[in-house]
Amino acid sequence: MLRWKSIAVLGLALAVVGCSSTGKKELPPAELKDIKAEVRLDEVWSRSVGDGQGKEYNRLVPAVDGQTIFAADADGRVMAMNRETGQVLWKKDLDLPVSGGVGVGSSLVLVGTLRGQVIALDSASGDEKWRAQASSEVLSAPVVNNDVVVVQSQDDKLQAFELGSGTRRWIYEDTQPVLSLRGTGAPLVTNQVVMAGFASGKVVALDVQRGLPLWEQQIAVPKGRSELERIVDVDGGLSLSGDTLYVVSYNGRVVALNPANGQILWQRDASSYDGVAEGFGNVYLSLDNGTVEAVEESSTSALWTNADLARRQLTGPVVWSSNVVVGDYAGYIHLLSQVDGRFVGRTKVDGDGVRVRPLVVGDMLYVYGNGGKLVAYRLR
Q1: Which residues, in sequence order, are CB contacts of 25 under 8 Å at separation 6+?
Q2: Three-state SS across the chain?
Q3: Which of 126, 187, 215, 319 could staple 262 via S-S, CB 3.0–4.6 A?
Q4: What are the residues whose beta carbons fall under 8 Å from the beta carbon of 4, sequence distance 6 or more?
């Protein structure tokens, strides 16, 4: 979906973005080919989390803290479950349209709403601790360290709130383009620094205490004549692995940065509205056209490319054991070998589709479908 800065939200699917204004008929999603399954997925448990992603283009993601997994639906139901058994520990109905979540840490569970509210719940009981008001709708999970909660809102502002009370500490604003994708990536926060990507194609690092910029790096530069062609959002979030920060933009590049100073270590042309995954010395991407790609960190060349999921509106990738996992619009998850990208497994999770990337914790894979089905898997 796209969003005009000062006019309205356009009800367009991401699949339409590639059409531009040429008038050409968009090709349908690729049909799935039969595969020879080399791994078996065992369903450990399954639970329904209310209405799931709802009717808006929400991207609500579950979160794990210790032995508990937390999930929220678009109608404001927040649930805590034992991540090994799926046993429900508590439920909380907020009766508000939740659009950003779930964030967890420092004994708090955090969600954001379409009205810009940030709500903090006690992670052990679900009791509400505080509410705060952000500058606009919150479309990604709030993040937390042991001092502050940081939220990125749709108007390209980063805001920090006191952990104990929800009092706003600081606000940082980036220049918002005329047209952008609907959504934001969740920022990364440490005890000293918060890093975030913006719709301008920029990544910024701020001092977490005062919100002062430490460095910024332009990941993608808008090109083309139309505002549609000039979209360069960094919407997939950032990935920090060791001493390298990975980021990818729409209509731009995948880039490896030094998180200390923002210096570019390497870069490669790419276009994605999801983030990256890292493993086996490679960076894995779900490109906006449905191609899954492995890029070697050492040479920045493509190790392998799998184009058999073209136009299937893939989630961001995750690494699970020796596999790369992506979900698609029809509710399937696909397992690809990290070695050569061949399909090694597939299963259908939710008939309403899977929009948010699966979550890997230990040997478990958690998949949250658009219709509210949360499923835990193990490999056999």
Answers
A1: none
A2: CEEECCCCEECCCHHHHHHCCCCCCCCCCCCCCCCCCCCCEEEEEEEECCCCCCCCCCCCCCEEECCEEEEECCCCEEEEEECCCCCEEEEEECCCCEEEEEEEECCEEEEEECCCEEEEEECCCCCEEEEEECCCCECCCCEECCCEEEEEECCCEEEEEECCCCCEEEEEECCCCCEEECCCCCCEECCCEEEEECCCCEEEEEECCCCCEEEEEECCCCCCCCCCCCCCCCCCCCEEECCEEEEECCCEEEEEECCCCCCEEEEEEECCCCCEEEECCEEEEECCCCCEEEEECCCCCEEEEECCCCCCCCCCCEEECCEEEEECCCCEEEEEECCCCCEEEEEECCCCCCCCCCEEECCEEEEECCCCEEEEEEEC
A3: 215
A4: 10, 178, 179
Residues pairing with 72 in the sheet: 78
Predicted pLDDT at 374: 98
pTM of the predicted model, to two decimals?
0.91
pLDDT at residue 6, as a whole number: 37
Please give the pLDDT value at position 252: 85
Closest CA to 273 of 250, 246, 253: 250
Which of 22, 18, 15, 20 has the alpha carbon at shortest distance from 1? 15
- Tokens read off for 313: 């509106």
Q: What is the structure's pLDDT at 1?
A: 53
Class in CATH terms, 62-173 = mainly beta
Mean pLDDT of each 10-residue bin along the chain, 380 residues long: 41 40 75 95 96 91 97 97 98 95 96 96 97 93 95 92 96 74 79 92 94 93 72 80 91 92 94 90 94 92 96 96 97 97 97 96 97 96
pLDDT, residue 298, reads 83
